[in-house]
Structures are given as C-alpha cells and as structure tokens.
Design goal:
This protein is mostly beta strands and 470 residues long. It contains four helices and 34 strands.
C-alpha cells in the first residue's frame, strides 16, 4: 500500500502471472481502494435519476461517485471518474440534465461539461445500468477528453485521436515532447485506479459562460435543465445580481437584483416556477416565472423589519411539494416559510403573501446546510436534514397542523458525522427508481433513502436511512 502526494491511496495485490512466456510466476496488480478529495469539499449534486453523485473541492477537482455492483448483490460506492481537473479552487456545481453539469471556481467563468461515450460505457458496466440508448446518441461525439499543456479547458478527444505520449513513440518534431493528448480508451468493469482517473476519465468542456465581475460563488440549475442561475462574490448590490442563462443558445436571459451582498445559495422549486436565493445580507428573495416564456419577477423578499434571521443565511431548500421552503443561518436558526393560510398576507410589506409558518428551530451551532427529504415521513410529516458548522448532522420532522412542534427523529453518531463544517446536504432523487433498486443499494429494506453530505473535512459521505423508521 502507498499514499500519493495528492491524497490517493494505492494498493497492489500479488496475483499469478497469466503471461506464459514470462519466467516470473507472480506479479503485482493494482487493486480497488477508497478514494476522494484531499481538501475541503464545497458542493455536491446528484444526477436527476440518482445514479451517481458529483462533488467539487478546493483541491481543484470535480469527482464523480457511483455504485459498484458485483455478483452476489455486493455493492459499494467509489470514485469512478474525475471529469474536471482545474487550475483554480472549485466552489460550486449543478447537474444540467442527466449527463451534463455546470461548475464554478475562483474565476469569473462558468464551465459546462458533457459526458463522453467512454464514460457511459464504463458506467453501464460498473453500475450495471442500461445506457444503450444514451451510448447510441453519442456515437459521433467525443470518446474522452484531455487537458492541453498549460491549459485549463478539457479538449474533446474523438475516435482515433487518443494515443501514447510522445516519449513512447518516435519524435519527429520538438513540439512532440509536450503532447496535448494523453487520453487512452479504457474498458472498465471495476472502479478505475488513480492513474486512469487522472488522465482517462475527463469530460469534454462544451461551453464557457462569461458575465460575472468577480469569482463564481454559487450556481443552480432549473429542473427541466433549460436554465442556469449563477452568482459571484459581491460586496456591493451592483455585483450581487443573479444571472439567468439559457442552456439551448447559451446566452444571458436576464439579471435579477435583490441582494446587496454575496448570494450564498439558490434553489429552483421542483415545478421550476420559483427561484429562491439567500444571502450574506441576512435576507432571502423569491422570484416567480409564470411560464417558460415569461420573465422572472421578484414577488417576496425579507428586509430589516421582516427578516427573522440576524446573521448570514447560508442555505435554503424547497419541500418536495413546493408548499414550503426552509432557510438556515449562522444565528443557529432554521425557519420554514410559506404562504399564509388564507392566501392573503401583509401585502403592505415586502413579504407579500409569504411569511414564517414555523417557530424557529434552534440548534447548538451555526446551521450551514439544510435539505428537505423527497417524501413525507410515515406519519405524514416533512423531514428536514440539518448540517451544522461543527459537522453534526440531524434529521427533524415538522408538521404545520401539530402545534408547530419540531421533532428530532435521527441523530447521527459522531463516527458518521463530519469533523468540520457541513457545506452541503442533498437527498438522493427518487425519480425512476424502484423499491428493488433501493433495497439492492441499501442492503436493508425497500424503503431506504440516501442522504449525501460534504464538508471542509475533505470527505463526501452517503448515509442510508430507513424511511419506515422515521
């Protein structure tokens, strides 16, 4: 076993040499190990069908984690691709459809990546997924990607372009000492080794989006994948605007102004008609889009008089039915908001028909991440995962018709929690997933839910939770 400079663990096992011409009876073969980031993880997201998870870190990489299924129903999660190896610290990521994502780093540019054909082929074999249609659709597209010397953009590599580095073949020109294509086509049935992850699992960069004046801080994608919302670091209102991008023509649709400082997180509602944003200025803002052709309009916003939070609001989340949304702040409070019961609120205030519908949930430390579960609990309560600055993760239940009582239904053991600030929580989507698939992944019951978390302690964790026990 060995430990690499960038945090990778290498493992070799001695196996019988299958080469009959060799005089050596045994050889050392690389084996599957655990992997992951070696610096703080800033953000993560599930693909829309919940088949894999992507995460970004200040170690300047984007990593993709998926389930490795073997014979006998054995399953485990591993890093199976490293779509982006960058030159700037990564800050945010969002899936834009099944095999496409947008990422932001400590630069002014948003970058769009799309899965190459070789990745889909390997994912289908490692996770035992039927991706024949997706592979056929990409028959004429890139097989992989490679980063040019001194470059930051992943260049697409098409069939026949991959090859060995110049040092392994005849050099006919001095420029070939520094080849641009290191990608080699690989066929995998198990998670790749560190060497393959570094050079053979990159995704081609298909678009760049320019428009922000400072470093990208947060990004969110519309559920339909047709819009992207992004923000940058801001110390003035003029830089704190949210830019909405169209993913078909890749241009700016509009800019939404509501905050005076950096927007820390955004979330589209599941219907796609609302966009929620929270900010360092201790306020949240809600925008509404009546139809896909109509522009977004600001319909509610907290101010100094109506804001319950007294410190930075770090996180927000929509309930699965879009009736409520939650905000979480450094002031150790979580609050659920919604429309007033009679549909008529204090229209004279900036909140419009919206207002707090729960009493504040007070925690032991600053709240840095929240996410509503995709379904109700067994007693028809909403479930909310809460992550703290101390690394603690807990799940609470809340019902509007039970005298507004918060119930802590799950407290993770300290060995399962993070040791530093929780940056993001994400429940695994339930779309197109059967109970049998849940049971196969969880190894327990058919009512298993998954919660992914990431932290500045360099780890990404996936927690399995029995829904019937909540």
């Amino acid at each position: 076993m060995a430990h690499g400079f960038q945090g990778a663990i290498h493992l070799w096992t001695k196996v019988a040499n299958q080469n009959t011409e060799s005089q050596v009876a045994e050889r050392w073969s690389p084996a599957v190990t655990v992997g992951g980031h070696y610096d703080g993880v800033q953000d993560l997201d599930w693909d829309p069908e919940g088949k894999f998870l992507v995460s970004v870190s200040v170690d300047q990489t984007t990593r993709l984690h998926a389930c490795w299924r073997r014979d006998g129903n054995q399953t485990s999660w591993h890093e199976i691709a490293r779509p982006q190896v960058h030159g700037y610290d990564m800050q945010c990521i969002a899936m834009v459809g099944r095999f496409k994502f947008v990422s932001g780093a400590d630069e002014k540019v948003l970058r769009i990546f799309e899965a190459p054909r070789n990745f889909l082929e390997n994912l289908s074999k490692i996770s035992q997924l039927n991706l024949d249609e997706e592979i056929k659709e990409r028959k004429s597209q890139a097989e992989g990607a490679s980063v040019p010397a001194l470059g930051l953009s992943n260049k697409a590599v098409f069939s026949g372009e991959g090859g060995m580095p110049a040092s392994d073949r005849e050099i006919t020109h001095p420029s070939e000492l520094y080849p641009e294509i290191y990608f080699a086509l690989v066929n995998l049935t198990s998670p790749p080794t560190e060497e393959h992850l570094l050079q053979n699992t990159l995704w081609p960069e298909t678009q760049k989006l320019y428009g922000h004046g400072f470093e990208i801080f947060c990004v969110a994608a519309h559920p339909a994948g047709n819009l992207i919302a992004s923000v940058c670091k801001a110390s003035k209102a003029e830089y704190a605007s949210i830019i909405i991008w169209d993913t078909e023509k890749w241009h700016q649709v509009c800019q939404l102004a509501a905050h005076s400082l950096t927007v820390t997180q955004m979330a589209f509602s599941h219907s796609g008609h609302h966009l929620l944003s929270v900010s360092r200025d201790r306020t949240w803002a809600l925008f509404h889009q009546p139809s896909s052709e109509a522009p977004f309009q600001l319909i509610a916003k907290t101010d100094k008089k109506t804001s319950v939070h007294t410190r930075i609001i770090w996180s927000c989340s929509w309930s699965h039915d879009d009736k409520f949304f939650a905000t979480a702040s450094r002031d150790k409070k979580v609050i659920i908001w919604g429309q007033s019961s009679d549909g008529e609120g204090e229209r004279s205030t900036s909140l419009g028909v919206y207002g707090p519908v729960s009493s504040p949930l007070t925690t032991s430390d600053a709240v840095t991440a929240v996410d509503f579960a995709p379904i109700l609990s067994s007693d028809n309560s909403y479930m909310l995962a809460v992550g703290l600055e101390s690394g603690v993760i807990a799940i609470y239940k809340w019902r509007k018709d039970t005298q507004d009582v918060w119930t802590q239904c799950v407290t993770f053991d300290s060995s399962l929690c993070h040791t530093a600030c929780v940056k993001r929580l994400k429940w695994r989507p339930l779309a197109d997933r059967t109970n049998q698939e849940n049971a196969k992944d969880c190894g327990k019951t058919s009512s298993c839910l998954y919660l992914a978390s990431c932290s500045t302690d360099c780890s990404v964790r996936i927690h399995s939770i029995d829904h019937n026990a909540l």
